[in-house]
Amino acid sequence: MEIAGEMHPNSQSPRDVAGSAPRISIVVPAYNEEGNLRTLYAELADVLHALKMPWEIVLVDDGSTDKTWEEILALHQRDGRVKGLRLSRNFGHQYALFAGLTHATGDAVVSMDADLQHPPHVIPELVDEWHKGSKIVHTVRMDRESTSWFKRVASRLFYRVYSFASGVELENGMADFRLLDRQVIAGLSQLREEELFLRGLVQWIGFPSSKVAFLCQDRLSGRSKYTLGKMVKLAWSSITSFSIIPLRVGLLIGILTSLISFGGILYALGSDLIGFVVPGWTSIVSIISFLFGILFIMLGIIGEYIGRILMEVKGRPRFLVSAQVGIERPLGDSGALER
């Protein structure tokens, strides 16, 4: 790890790199990651120096409450190729990642997490695939033996359900650790949906692609920011933003419940014609309760889609930048406020 206050041996000052456009950019969203950034920088600098290509690292502080931004400023002082964005609040991982992508200037852009679970030593493999002609180089996570059974099953289930519902095929283990060509970044910037799920959007957008497998590492320090609730929310948002199948399922359930209700009416009429009166009120209350329950579920699904329409119509920016360092684009221009 780099000693505090000491410049990395491969570092350059901002003046040294002012006249050279980076060929490769590394984009790293960070939320309360102060304990990881120095080690991440040291490992990235070693790997990128070996590539013999101009490079930059764009660190995005997603409204952290610790000293993440101070660490970014310190790294920039030591190495001008480290650049930083500070969002005005916590917008979420996908929006912070998108902010970094729109501010990166490399011909190829690698996105990865700050906790070192995405190993920097895989980057040369991604660059090799890019040189071979791939515009998108996905990574596929291989779980460690210590990964819990629940996480493995939940991950597989999500990717299968998502692929079926959206029509966009995602392989189990695909991560936000990937390389994107500048042409792909330009294509992503044209997409205007409010709910971002970049794994799905990158797959949907097309272009020649390839895959590289990697072994997920242990988190260096801190705790994962993806709680069970956030993962469920991401899963639901990703499916509903790409598919109307939940509405079609609602239609199917509505048809089935209507048939059940119609059968109940025929049974009641038949019983009345033959003089047999249905005893008690339990069956009536049960049927009514069941139908109203289904009705409210359907209204909830419809309401979810109406809510998404409302958010899209408002046209709010996806993120707001409150500070930046090393970024040439003026603070507050259309890129920083991009939908």
Can you give keywords for this protein?
339 residues; alpha/beta; 2 domains; 8-stranded mixed beta sheet; 11 helices; 47% helix; 14% strand; elongated; disordered C terminus
CATH superfamily of the largest domain: Spore Coat Polysaccharide Biosynthesis Protein SpsA, Chain A
Main sheet makeup: 8 strands, mixed
Counting DSSP H or I runs of 4 or more residues, the number of helices is 11
Q: How many domains, as an integer?
A: 2
- Provide the helix percentage: 40-55%
For this structure, the CATH topology of the largest domain is Spore Coat Polysaccharide Biosynthesis Protein SpsA, Chain A
Overall mean pLDDT stands at 76
Q: What is the rounded distance between the termini?
A: 38 Å
Please indicate the percent range of residues in DSSP E strands (runs of 2 or more): 5-15%
Residue windows where pLDDT falls under 50 for at least 5 positions: 1-19, 333-339
The CATH architecture assignment of the largest domain turns out to be: Alpha-Beta Complex
General form: elongated
Structural class: alpha/beta
Helix and strand run: HEHEHEHEHEHEHHEHHHE
Tell me, what is the CATH class of the largest domain? Alpha Beta
In short:
The chain has helices at 14-17, 37-51, 68-78, 93-103, 123-131, 149-166, 182-188, 198-205, 228-242, 245-273, 282-314, and strands at residues 24-30, 55-61, 82-87, 108-111, 136-142, 178-181, 209-215, 321-325. With 339 residues, it is an alpha/beta fold.
Structural topology:
Blueprint: H1 14-17, E1 24-30, H2 37-51, E2 55-61, H3 68-78, E3 82-87, H4 93-103, E4 108-111, H5 123-131, E5 136-142, H6 149-166, E6 178-181, H7 182-188, H8 198-205, E7 209-215, H9 228-242, H10 245-273, H11 282-314, E8 321-325
Parallel strand pairs: 1-2, 1-4, 2-3, 5-7
Antiparallel strand pairs: 3-8, 4-6, 5-6
Helix pairs in contact: 6-9, 10-11
